[in-house]
Amino acid sequence: MLDDPGRVGFEYTDPSRLETRMAIYGRAAEAALDAVAEIHPARVLDVGAGTGAFAVRVAAATGAAVTAVDSSAAMVALAQAAGLDAIEADARALPAPAAAFDCVVANWMLYHVPDRDQAIAEAARVLRPEGRLVAATFSERNLEELWHALGDHTPRGHGFTAENGAPQLRRHFRWVEERRVTWRIAFSDRDGLRALVAANIRRAHLSERVAHIDLPFTAAARHTVFVAEGARRQ
Fold it and tell me: In angstroms, rounded to a whole number, what is the distance separating the alpha carbons of residues 133 and 226?
């Protein structure tokens, strides 16, 4: 479902649902930003950049020239409005020459791509030999305490997660590091929690069950920032 083009297209025609989900990714986003900034890149490509919020932060933190790419015309327009060089394009066919960037970012987006292997190969292609891919994603156990409290115990099997991302990256990169980021989130506002559940792509139907949860409620956010270098040239 997360890599269904029709569903993905619907989710990203309006930024509100994306922004609701991303609002609780704070510490993982900070870890991803650190992974980009520590190599002092001059040119960065943010693939699946959404509204461009992360790309703006990269530009401010590093001084790099940042290009944002997204398959959604609505997201590209928002990124351009934020002052970014933003292009509508498919992650599987990036509009850039080989070895053009010091860093490629692919945060919380590879599970949306039907052919992840091709998308990762494209990221490797446009990276310079010493370049770095930063790809953040969630664990299959992300917020599991919340989902269990709402009665959902069904394994989801997402395409690119903390559990299965590394071997996918190793097909295209010689070195892959996993930086796990876990923290506790205390939910005390019922309306805010309901909005968060309603914004979830697969579990929106559970939002009415929030009324039955005793607050405050605590769940663990579980994410991983993958850092990959040594692109294998095809």
Answer: 8
Instruction: State residue 150's pLDDT score.
Output: 95
Asked whether residue 190 is domain-assigned, the answer is no
Residue 62 inside a domain? The answer is yes
User: Is residue 44 domain-resident?
Assistant: yes
- Rounded Cα distance between 149 and 160, Å, is 25
Angstrom distance (rounded) from CA 156 to CA 142? 11
**Using one digit for the tens of pLDDT, what is the confidence trace for 115-165?**
999 999 999 999 999 999 999 999 999 999 999 999 998 877 789 999 999
Burial of residue 174 (number of CB atoms within 10 Å: 0-12, 13-18, 19+)? exposed
Assess whether pLDDT exceeds 60 at residue 9. Answer: no
> How large is the average pLDDT for residues 47-73?
97
The DSSP secondary-structure symbol of 85 reads E
Task: Identify whether 130 is part of a domain.
Answer: yes
**pTM beyond 0.90:** yes
Contact (CB, 8 A) for 171 and 118: no
Of 1 and 210, the one with more pLDDT: 210
What is the domain extent for residue 130? 5-142+157-182+222-231
State the Cα–Cα distance between residues 171 and 71, nearest whole angstrom.
Answer: 24
* Token output for 63: 């001084």
Q: Minimal CA–CA distance to 107: which of 200, 203, 20, 30?
A: 30
Mean pLDDT of 105-112: 96
CATH code for the domain in which residue 75 is found: 3.40.50.150
Count of the separate structural domains present in the chain: 1
Cα separation, 53 vs 14, in Å, equals 15
